[in-house]
Write a structure and sequence with these properties.
CATH class: Mainly Beta
Order of helices and strands: EEEEHHEEEEEH
Largest sheet: 7 strands, mixed
Number of strands: 9
Number of domains: 1
Distance between the termini: 33 Å
Mean pLDDT: 82
Structural class: mainly beta
Shape: globular
CATH architecture: Roll
Helix content: 10-25%
CATH topology: PUA domain-like
Low-confidence stretches: none
Strand order of the largest sheet: 1-2-5-8-9-4-3
Number of helices: 3
């Protein structure tokens, strides 16, 4: 948020959503918590977010996002519109009584989507996910 001028020493607006669109920078930033606990998240915000492999990432929108919404259309057509998608991920909201930091996975490109309210997207990362993050992000591999 600081890198985009949204947060600094003079201004620290609260931010609770998992996505922030910076229109002037034509960038959507996704903040993804992989392991959500019932005590920290409402049932309506327990989204299915996980790595499919080192390059593909499954991400679910908020429950009110429909396929024909302006936001969903921006995600689907981001390349044609010239907008960017940036993924930041953390395993847990909090660890050892401290807020967990997010790891920047990089920019991603639209692959496909399905569903409606919420929508499920598959994104292709431009670079492989850091190897240490893959086991935590991929809930399928045990």
């Amino acid at each position: 948020m600081a890198a985009f001028g949204y947060w600094n020493e003079e201004k620290a607006p609260s931010f609770r959503e998992g996505v922030k669109y910076f229109e002037e920078k034509t960038t959507d930033i996704f903040f993804i918590t992989l392991n959500k606990s019932d005590k920290d998240f409402l049932p309506s915000t327990l989204y299915e977010d996980y790595a499919i492999n080192e390059r593909l990432f499954h991400w679910q929108t908020q429950s009110r996002t429909s396929e024909d919404s302006k936001t969903a259309q921006r995600y689907i057509h981001h390349k044609q519109l010239g907008t960017r998608i940036a993924l930041f991920v953390r395993e847990y909201k909090e660890e050892h009584n401290y807020t967990s930091p997010f790891v920047f996975l990089g920019e991603a490109e639209y692959v496909k989507h399905e569903g409606n309210k919420p929508m499920s997207f598959v994104w292709r990362l431009k670079v492989d996910m850091p190897p240490a993050m893959v086991p935590a992000a991929n809930k399928v591999i045990v």
